[in-house]
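The data are quoted verbatim for completeness:
=====
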Amino acid sequence: MADAVPQADAKSTAFGIKDCALVVLATGRKARLLQELRSEVSHADTASIYHHFWGSLLQPRLEEREYNNDFAEWVRHGVHDPTLAERLAALSPTNYPDLEALRREMVELIDTRLDEAGHHAFAPATIQFELARSQIVVFDTGRRLAHPRELTASIPDLTTGSIFYHFVDARRRTADGRDDFSDWLAIFGSEVEPLREQLAAVDPYFGGLHALRDELAGLFAIHFPEVSP
């Protein structure tokens, strides 16, 4: 039941709101040819794969990007291969159990394209690709929530950093690969299980963090209409 958490346990079960930022670090790995990108992707730390797929969500931009990940962007605008760019852009990290599986899929796509393109694949890119990785820096906001109703009222005001930390980055921290909100809701029993299922169906990758925040706020508002902002 939604109110089943004993008062004595309220402090220990409180949800702490965190915020975060990503610090971008150079790796020294570079690619000018598609073959070089294949080699670098094959050997890069998974932190680089993570950064080039997820990191752009937290980067402020004046305009929408054409593709969601940096690899597709470079293949389109550096290598000028729209076919491979579209294939890479269709990859969503949420469809793979881990970053190693995503890496293998990327390498397969590049290999397939190298076979298709023949000698055209050896043309140097007009822009060099530089692999980076990111380190997450987490800030405790000091805010503590005792009940999901409080989260319902808070989500519209959360920063995109908080949304990223609790709903995106959480997937590589939690044991079941879910988000922090769902993990916390689990202690409130069956009444919030429909909301947990709805949260599990949300794909955080393609829409951007502002749209993701709106979607999450909408789901919580449906479940707790009495506290909708």
User: Anything to note?
Assistant: Residues 110 and 116 are 10 Å apart (CA to CA). Residues 1-8 have pLDDT under 50 and may be disordered. The radius of gyration is 20 Å.
